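Need tokens for this chain, all 240 residues.
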Amino acid sequence: MGSAAGRDVRTGGDVSHGLVVGKFYPPHAGHHHLIDTAAAACERLTVVVAVSPLESIPIVLRAAWLRERHSQPHVEIVAVVDDIPVDYDSDTTWAAHVAVFRAAAGGPVDVVFNSEEYGPELAGRLDAVHVPGDPARERFPVSGTAVCADPVARWEWLSPAVRAHLARRVVVVGAESSGTTTLARALASHYAMSARFAEELERRRLPHVVVTGPHAERLYEATEAIDALIAAGWTFTYPR
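Here are the structure tokens for all 240 residues:
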């Protein structure tokens, strides 16, 4: 191992050059925690965004999101294309990946901060110390794979910029009595958005009223609910 061995890198300022490597596909709260932890412990931190051309989120976006979130002057975000196949049993493949990371780091690395199983091996091949972040995902129960599988279920762990990119908006256009309401309801039912919206309100413990039945009954129930809120001291304002 390198000269950083034995140091308490969590105390801050004791490590010259730290390295964080990942796909950040997309960046989430766990990534940000790892980068912030590393930045607090290093005089210089390089974050390598290793991207495959086959992935759907562009390299420039992922790098821009990280630069927006991690603007510390000693943190450098370096985006690289790494389309080398993954094979943890191949020394040749390891050497190719490490060469990409060494070039991106631009110099010797003292510590590798990484929460993945390959972290210790990567650190060893860079002659550096390995510091795990949150391998069990206890503090932030999220991963890039989980986000890709179901972004809405992990929405709370994503930054506003990432949410804006992942959100899909459907606009139903039509004249009165042309079926727009029916179509909108069918789309919401098909994509289970009504149920998810209710689940999110419950999770955040936000008061809400479910109105059912014919239009006149729903309008009456909504009016009654608003009157009750006003009587309870609630106020309303125009959205901004």
